């Protein structure tokens, strides 16, 4: 049935009132008629849902008007494809951005309900793992703030990554059941459901006009069903859509099997379909795990492209204008298969010639690279792709043929360069390089910090850069100041407003005005007092969750991020052991009290990362209970790190640990969140630390360690790290105590191999950076004892964070990559 034309001036309900009385009445109405509860017996989760529904209703008007405006103006749309969107809790974010926080608070007070209790009750949306997903969430909020018409596309995971708990110091993975009680923010769009195929075969088909085309005939089918969530910009400037796909079977039950008595087998199709959106990042150590991961990536990429093409044809009627009206940003290699899927849609389903389709595809797509680590640049066995996506493998071969021909004929590449740019890796089993596919199929490839972008040109994409020298560009990451300053630290936001006025709320660069007040003793004292309040809240969280008492007067030294050897939590905890030895050996010294806070998840199959978590917990157990330490050093690991936990830890941090091996961290965004909240960074010249050093000044950051060039040189020379250990008595003593079982008396050999690796190869330069790191920590102690200087440095960090706003990043994407003009420059 043909669709009715869209009428832009269709009647809509009157906008809802935003008074305290109106909100109070509506919250009660929602509680009664949507939740089905009498206020007398309503529990906190009932009030939470009722409040969300009342706030959501006021967002709907803006959401619909945003969509109408894009249709009316025919503005170009941005589509952000990401396997992760770590959006956290939404209620406070939405209320703050549309200016409802105080009104809702008063309305609830009149009903004898505390808003902060409800905010803490809302579950985190478990849609991501770490920086990649949080970056995507910040970008979505900034696109709404800058009034860019945008859709985020991802997967509606039933269980997210995992809920991390500790069992005797070991990480235990449990389901993150965030959807157990529904999600009041989302809307199912059953009309936006697309069929996704897998397997089968490809047949040549001759059309009535004599044209020969390829037709993929999958033997496995399921449905991708859309669920939409509103993403509200600052001051409600625009409301964009996060569209998440849920996998559902075409036939939920095989009735013939059920009737024959095979009750489990009757649900086989449902189980196979629903497994695709069950868990974020299924372990890919097995062949079955690899296949499920690839199914996930194709599932959401195909559904998203079908949706994009459908919307474009509905409005414009032809596909020739795709690059003028559509920009698709690939967030890492996870959606790279979309390049081949777009070619299939254009060539096989819409009869377009190959050359024209390839031109349109490259005009539409752009690709953000987030890592130089080979294991994170995805590749898939050719045999797996041929079995699961046979037509896409044909298309990839055809794309590769065009690229290699161009490399040989135009660029005169030799055999080694041809092998380097090929989409097919021929070494150790033939595999499709998804980073290469994303590169050749995009008109723009960006890194996420200045250093990372230069290293891309020199390492992973060196020959592709020679072939297409105009494509690589830099877009340094950013964070949304609304969530990571204004919402998670309202006390600091109020203090800044009192001192320099409210203009920074709309233009974060205006924070520079704080520089003029950094030497003011009164402001320094007020700034420190806000920090102390936040530290008291974190101390309470540590006490409640771990039973460890810490003093808010201590220096809070924080490293919170995914557990990985290159991020060097191991360096941090070894230095803590060395400090522990020093405190016991020299009790007469004036030691700075420290609380070392760790948090982060290790991939389930990453043994060394899980062992590092166990080591942190073992070291903490010994140090925290040793009376000889006199409370001068505490080590804690907070389990189940997520956005909500970060919102408590980040404002409380005095020292931000950004200590990755130089050349291995693409950017980092945690470093920016800490900076915004007045923490001082100790770090290597890696990722966005390089730009932080430039922005904040050398006097307001503590830098240590080998440079990227020095790391590469030492690796090239295969230098034995044992010499560095022998030169450092403090390091050797710490390593010996860990390896010999001082912290693991129940299993003295537990850490022998982990520490032995530092003697044998030390790929991540833990031993060789140790003395420099220890010296930097002593510099931190000296700075802490000069409180006026420390407070001045902290104020300068907050004042100069403006460059690291995701608004700046998105403006650069819009202007340099997507071809969009920003209305509110």
UniProtKB/TrEMBL annotation:
It comes from the Bacteria. It catalyses: [(1->4)-alpha-D-glucosyl](n) + phosphate = [(1->4)-alpha-D-glucosyl](n-1) + alpha-D-glucose 1-phosphate. Keywords: Carbohydrate metabolism, Glycosyltransferase, Pyridoxal phosphate, Transferase. It holds the Pfam family Phosphorylase. Its EC number is 2.4.1.1. Its cofactor is pyridoxal 5'-phosphate. Belongs to the glycogen phosphorylase family. Allosteric enzyme that catalyzes the rate-limiting step in glycogen catabolism, the phosphorolytic cleavage of glycogen to produce glucose-1-phosphate, and plays a central role in maintaining cellular and organismal glucose homeostasis. This is Alpha-1,4 glucan phosphorylase. It comes from Devosia nitrariae. The lineage of its organism: Bacteria, Pseudomonadati, Pseudomonadota, Alphaproteobacteria, Hyphomicrobiales. The gene is glgP.
